[in-house]
């Protein structure tokens, strides 16, 4: 099995890691560079000169390695990173699970080859009409029941012109629809649509510091809760500069109100 050319990079985990927090920008650049080499080469050399050359021969290498070296461990004469090991294992399990699922699906659709010399024999499977399904939680029934709500959310998302839905229908069914169905269990169409509008406004106006543009499924998975009106997104994502302006305006208003009050005898 070929090694994946990429690994998941969790920004929050990286920035809040106690070893990374104490690094300066040069050390962080070295760390990220070595993570890439470690992933690509299945480990790093334990030779300091070799590591230094990989990172462009920084002058103060000993000082940098004093902090970056704490993020790696030695195994079999090579250096490894525990988080990369974890990501590699997650990818391996996912591939095995996907492969197993594909094989099981093929068996259901085409049957066991067995003694059939002519090739696979297609097996007809019995299906129940959607209306008579005995499982109320089945994805088909759930999708049918929420069809209008799902369409409404997708239509509203597209109207905001944030990021259009993925072109491939398979991606929409695999990623977007399940996320919408999941959130509809906890929130109404109105709440979700309002959160989308809030996100759109914050994304497009300069006075807010949030600027990451998600696909709809990413927004539902990672950002919906933060942009619900009840969670005050306009206040939470306001830039420090604009917060100061608002505070000054509030102070000025209080002072004006106070000066307009009639003096008591």
Report on the architecture of this protein.
- Helix content is 61%, strand content 3%.
- The protein has 265 residues and is mainly alpha-helical.
- It folds into two domains: 1-110, no CATH class; 139-241, no CATH class.
- A three-stranded antiparallel beta sheet has the order 1-3-2.
- Helix 9 runs parallel beside helix 11.
Q: How would you concisely characterize the structure shown here?
A:
By secondary structure, this protein is mainly alpha-helical. It has 13 helices and 3 strands, in the order H-H-H-E-H-H-E-E-H-H-H-H-H-H-H-H. The protein has a 3-stranded antiparallel sheet with strand order 1-3-2.
Essential attributes:
265 residues, mainly alpha
Largest sheet: 3 strands, antiparallel
SSE pattern, N- to C-terminal? HHHEHHEEHHHHHHHH
Shape: flat
Beta strand %:
under 5%
What low-confidence regions span 5 or more consecutive residues with pLDDT below 50? Answer: 128-137
Q: What is the domain tally?
A: 2
Averaging pLDDT over every residue, what do you get?
79
Count of discrete alpha- or pi-helical segments spanning 4 or more residues: 13
Structural class label = mainly alpha
Termini separation (Å)? 89 Å
Number of strands: 3
Fraction of residues in helices?
55-70%
Radius of gyration: 28 Å
State the strand order across the main sheet.
Answer: 1-3-2
Topology:
Layout: H1 11-16, H2 18-21, H3 25-41, E1 44-45, H4 48-54, H5 61-68, E2 73-75, E3 78-80, H6 82-110, H7 139-145, H8 147-160, H9 169-184, H10 189-204, H11 216-227, H12 233-236, H13 240-260
Antiparallel strand pairs: 1-3, 2-3
């Amino acid at each position: 099995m070929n090694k994946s050319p990429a690994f998941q990079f969790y920004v929050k985990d990286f920035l809040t890691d106690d070893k990374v927090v104490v690094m300066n920008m040069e050390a962080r650049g070295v760390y990220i560079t070595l993570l890439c080499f470690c992933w690509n080469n299945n480990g790093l050399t334990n030779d300091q000169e070799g590591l230094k050359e990989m990172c462009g021969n920084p002058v103060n290498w000993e000082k940098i390695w004093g902090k970056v070296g704490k993020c790696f461990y030695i195994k079999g004469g090579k250096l490894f990173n525990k988080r990369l090991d974890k990501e590699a294992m997650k990818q391996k399990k996912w591939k095995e699970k996907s492969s197993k699922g594909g094989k099981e699906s093929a068996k259901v659709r085409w049957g066991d080859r067995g003694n059939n010399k002519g090739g696979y024999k297609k097996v007809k499977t019995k299906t129940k009409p959607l209306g008579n399904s005995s499982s109320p939680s089945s994805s088909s029934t759930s999708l049918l029941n929420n069809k209008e709500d799902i369409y409404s959310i997708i239509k509203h998302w597209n109207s905001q012109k944030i990021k259009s839905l993925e072109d491939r229908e398979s991606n929409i069914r695999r990623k977007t629809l399940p996320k919408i169905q999941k959130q509809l269990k906890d929130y109404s169409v109105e709440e979700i649509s309002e959160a989308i509008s809030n996100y759109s406004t914050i994304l497009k106006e300069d006075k807010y510091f949030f600027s990451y543009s998600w696909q709809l499924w990413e927004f539902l998975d990672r950002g919906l809760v933060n942009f619900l009106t009840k969670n005050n997104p306009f206040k939470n994502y306001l830039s420090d500069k604009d917060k100061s302006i608002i505070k000054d305006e509030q102070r000025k208003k209080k002072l004006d109100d106070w000066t307009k009050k009639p003096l008591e005898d």
